[in-house]
Amino acid sequence: TEALERRMGVRELHLERVRKLKQSGNHILGGAIIDDQGMMIGSMMVMQFETEEALNEWLENEVYITAKVWDRVDVRPFRVAEL
Q: What end-to-end distance do the CA atoms of the chain give, in Å?
């Protein structure tokens, strides 16, 4: 499909950038959302930014957004439980 082609075209750049976000502490976890047959139906990332401006900068430059791999992005507040 076209979406898969767009994803594969920018996947390495996306992963390279995510690795940098992981090193800086901005990326907590992420991966594929799968259906009962094990097929990918979406993806998710748990991110942590100090400011809304930093979040918005990431959103404006995330290659999966700019290359239209993700057609919808939902941003929700999340707090990691301290155990």
A: 43
Strand partners, 13: none
CA pair distance 70, 72, nearest whole angstrom: 5
Distance, CA of 69 to CA of 5 (rounded, Å):
9
Residue 56: pLDDT band (50, 70, 90) is very high
Between CA 9 and CA 15 the distance in angstroms is 12
How far is Cα 53 from Cα 2, in angstroms, rounded to an integer? 32
Q: What is the pLDDT confidence band of residue 79, given thresholds at 50, 70 and 90?
A: confident
Q: What is the pLDDT of residue 1?
A: 67
